[in-house]
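hey so i finally got around to running the thing on that chain from the lab meeting. sorry it took forever, my laptop kept dying and i had to restart like 3 times. anyway pasting the input first so we r on the same page abt which one it is
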Amino acid sequence: MEEEMENLREHETWTLEEPPKGTKPIQCKWVLRKKVNATGEVTRYKARLVAKGYAQQKGIDYEDVYSPTSSFDTIRLLVALGVQMGWILEQADVKCAYLYGQLKEEIYMEQPSGFVCTGSEHLCCKLKKSIYGLKQSGRCWNKLLDQRLRSSGFKRNPVDPCVYGITLRSGRAIICVYVDDILTISQNEDVSKAVKELLSANFECKFAGQVSYLLGVEFTHDRDGGLTLSQKAYVERLLKRFNMENAKSVATPMEARPNFQGEQAVSRDVEKLPYRELVGGLLYLSQRTRPDIAFSVGKLSQFCSNYTKQHWDAAKRILRYLKATKHAGVKYKRNSEPLTAFADADWASCNGDRKSISGYIVFLHGSPIAWRSNKQTSIALSTMEAEYIAVSDCTRELTWMKEFIERLNIGQVLSKPISIMCDSQAAIAHANNCIDKSRTKHIAIRYHFVRDKVNDGVVELVYVPSSENIADVLTKPLSRRQHQAHVERMLDVGTIA
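ok and heres what got predicted. didnt touch it at all, straight out
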């Protein structure tokens, strides 16, 4: 707590003043937490003073609150490019980031417990900086970060507002910002040193060297210049939290033909089970490094308000699968393969509303950088329509990626159409031929986006047999043989028990 108070004083976070008559100061509290490393070991005990921002009123003590954060798709894409080009990947952390932000609103806060100034007990803290807990703190920090990076010569990527680039005499560098965590990708050592100096000139930063543990993900470097992203320690913590360390392993995350029933009331016995907590923990994992469980977790997340013992057992089965594959991760290595994607759909597979499941996965230099598995928002009337919607979703992602990569100004120009592998010849024909027949004219206009991109030469649809469509694992539960075959093409898995 003493260290946190010293940081607050150094940043001149507030001044002690008597609040205007009728002003009700917001309260604050101390939040204590442990910081852990990649193996789950405690590295630091931290105390943070947090304002109770829930008492703020819009239009009085805050206005805009939106602050951008980079997606993990962006981080994986940058890692893949960095490994391919042989650039240096490092990480940095801005100390007390929010305390740099300047407040424009007049906000009064009670003095923190344990540190009330003797003789000034009647005074309150008039905040000058965006202390943690305020609704607008994230926005204030991001605005100041953007201003200082721009003034230092960095240029913001127009496609992703959390990615910046800079060209120096010795080479080029890219930085990706996630709140106060920064991933730097430098062309050489001289550029890396220059970037650190620029960041240090603006903020008090902690430079951890070569990236090893960032945003809950372990980064493992190999001798060949490759890099593997995994979450073994996180999986082990999940297993321990839900008492599954000694459970029997299974080879697939879900049974081949599950029959989940929805629209049921949650019984009192089942309601006590931490189903939502488990599904939330699995979602975090599936979105970071484990596309192989994306479908299973997405399916179970549909029952968070009406789950049964059957759903709970299915969620525990995913833990049993993770126990067998906890070492699995996404491996990036130098490879000449271009940007490609696989798209698939499982038509009318949802028992309740008969909606279809879309899935796609994008590869860059032979490694996955983005994936999705989700229920379609409209009911498809045929297999072709469901596949067509999935291809359209994938096309939107690829269009963004193409522009993002080219805007990085690192010599990557995607002049050839990006291949989307699809196992529906009817969907491919419908995308390539702009003809609306009586059975297809009802399809929503927004899904015809794929046609424009095919005509513009941005993407091309390529037929692939269902047995070779990797996106199959994102739309339905598969047999052990099929599941393992697809997963081995996505991840570095080792041996599945």
